[in-house]
Design goal:
Blueprint (H helix, E strand, L loop, with lengths): L2 H15 L13 E2 L12 H15 L2 E12 L3 E4 L5 E3 L3 E5 L2 E10 L4 E8 L22 E8 L5 E8 L7 E3 L5 E12 L2 E8 L8 E6 L14 E9 L7 E8 L7 E9 L2 E9 L7 E5 L5 E4 L8 E3 L4 E2 L7 E9 L7 E12 L4 E6 L9 E4 L3 E3 L2 E10 L3 E8 L3 E8 L6 E6 L6 E7 L7 E21 L9
Antiparallel strand pairs: 1-21, 2-3, 2-15, 4-6, 4-14, 5-6, 6-7, 7-12, 8-9, 10-11, 10-13, 11-12, 13-14, 15-16, 16-17, 17-22, 18-23, 19-23, 20-22, 23-32, 24-32, 25-27, 26-27, 27-28, 28-31, 29-32, 30-31
Length: about 475
Amino acid sequence: MNEKRMKDALEAIARRGVPEDVNLMPNIAAGLERRTLMTTLRTRPVLMLVLVLLTLALLSGAAYAIGRMSGYIPGIGMVDQSVQLRVLAEPVTVTREGITLTVEQAVLSADKTVLIYKVEGIPVDAYASEGEGEGGEPNSVSVSSSTVIQEGTPDVEYSSSVSTQCVADEHLILPDGSIVRVSGGGMYGWLTGFESHYEYDPIPSEVNQAVFVVACIDGTTPGKLPENWEIPLRFVPAPPDMTIFPVIEATTTGESQSALTIEKVIETNDGYILMGKFRLIGYPSNVDPNDVQTNWVKITDGEGRIVDVLPFTEGVQSGIKTPGEFTWAYEIKGKQHTWPLTITMDAVYVNLLDTTAEFEFDAGNNPQVGQTWTLDPNVEIAGYEIREVSIKRTGRGYEFQFKVDPNILLFMPEIKGFPSSSGTGGNDGFGAGRIYYQLEYRNPPSGKLTVRLSDVSVVIYGPWEIQWSPEDTPLKP
């Protein structure tokens, strides 16, 4: 297979999970939501549930409740059961010119609509190539993208190019003509296809039909594959034996002063799912916790042994992040542990709101493409050092490479007084304190310029801990 085509195909698959306008900082954690609280619930669920909730309330300072009749459906995520759940009547498959699109599953709840569909049979040469359109000709319409080339060491080369690729624009059309659009979700792909798991706004309970519309096959070159897919769907009440695990919600009796709190607990067939929040206590209000890296979290049992856990990501709820906190969720494998478990976060990412720094450089009156300036700006941002800046004149603007304190994750540069037409950037991914950014302009500025740094994200170290046991208080700072 042509090596360039293989590279293009793999890059197109990667782009499916990383939209062109993706924020390169760690993804902001949204509210993470995933049948048996104890074995006896299966035989006398109502009585036993009441007894369990009362016992937990007496044992701890936490109150437990079933929140809004919340449930967790494996593969779907959290659902609100306050109205009758509905599902896809049957999978629907359509094949056009060798491309097969199958709507595999749909669940309609009071708070959202979840739809899972799969595309198979995509030819490798249908994927959009960097910098060229159909037939190998340069693209007439393009969007900015960035390519990171890793040489096997922390030193990274950066380049910028343009690409054209199809954006699927999936949506549902209801019988009255109204449109229901995607509100969140994601997908994973392989060389010849992908599966998409997207959430949409809720569909009214009296509406049991919709048309699923896909403008084109995501990530491919426009015009290469069949477009404007329209697939009729029919919804029916969920079967009574559908697997739904109850979600137990925990709230403290007073204002929590703990950095880590547990807010939801789900007992599955083979373990537990814990969901909670992280709040940064004792820091200024402009220090906004944003996310945590998986390797910064560990869960140990009562004897200090590492417990097998996985990040829980099913049914991520989109929405506005609450300032000063982020949500977390982990799935604990197994039930025979030495209790209590200790959850430890060693470090977190934070955004430094309203934090800026500036430095100047002189590009001269007639800067040439490829001309480079290396500066020692002697600048700090919130106490973190900017050690070196390399600026290169490109065809459309300027490319910046920064050597910074390794605890700086990312920031955004801008040339004051000159709004850019586009910008791309990121970090080296190795924690070596390298940040790059490229700004493009309709008319690139020259002369003495002031660079302003803002939107700063850094790492702050803990550790922070909380303990949890199925039979003890779930909120033990």
